[in-house]
Write a structure and sequence with these properties.
The complex is a heterodimer of chains A (about 120) and B (about 110).
Chain A: E1 4-7, E2 10-13, E3 19-25, E4 31-37, E5 43-49, E6 56-57, E7 64-67, E8 73-78, E9 87-94, E10 107-108, E11 112-116
Parallel strand pairs in A: 2-11
Antiparallel strand pairs in A: 1-3, 3-8, 4-5, 4-9, 5-6, 7-8, 9-10, 9-11
Chain B: E1 3-7, E2 10-14, E3 19-26, E4 31-38, E5 44-50, E6 56-58, E7 64-68, E8 73-78, E9 87-95, E10 102-103, E11 107-112
Parallel strand pairs in B: 2-11
Antiparallel strand pairs in B: 1-3, 3-8, 4-5, 4-9, 6-7, 7-8, 9-10, 9-11
The chains are: A mainly beta (about 120), B mainly beta (about 110).
Chain lengths: ~120, ~110
Amino acid sequence: NAGVTQTPKFRVLKTGQSMTLLCAQDMNHEYMYWYRQDPGMGLRLIHYSVGEGTTAKGEVPDGYNVSRLKKQNFLLGLESAAPSQTSVYFCASSSVSRDGPQNQPQHFGDGTRLSIL
Amino acid sequence: AQSVTQLGSHVSVSEGALVLLRCNYSSSVPPYLFWYVQYPNQGLQLLLKYTTGATLVKGINGFEAEFKKSETSFHLTKPSAHMSDAAEYFCAVNKAAGNKLTFGGGTRVLVKP
């Protein structure tokens, strides 16, 4: 019953360093998403993917890149970390119904707490 | 652009009392509506969703929500709060032709013994 697995769970970076967050799902979902969660702001979509080999920008994409080389994995990269990127990052995935993905719930990982000093 | 407003970032209720969490949305097209719950240091879990059909939706853990199109609201209720209901709750909206959720700012629920 793994569902959506995020690694690492915690990380501290220095300004300017780079890192990659990994998300893996074992539900054969087509759609995958990366969000950031900041106090009082709910979750904001960074990037998403509608299938293997595809990516698209969300609400707050600047400073992040993503890749989806395999259907089950969705990677989020920070090329040059900034203190403003200190946040909790969540990955999610969802299936597609006959009507599309919009009425399908998203399944979330437990998050990655990232601090940029 | 659609938006979601949750009235009250913090709500305190006594154990056994009614829980009422308010959610209003703005959308130019009929939306799909979701409530998620987040326990400390965990991801979000689906409580319930409204897509079509009956406007009163029942979810897990005794929660329910009513879609009122005329009021553009989707308030979440539970008749009797339990200590285990202490968590943060998020309302979210998806457009009928979209694939991206828009979340409200969240409401943190504290349950007093």
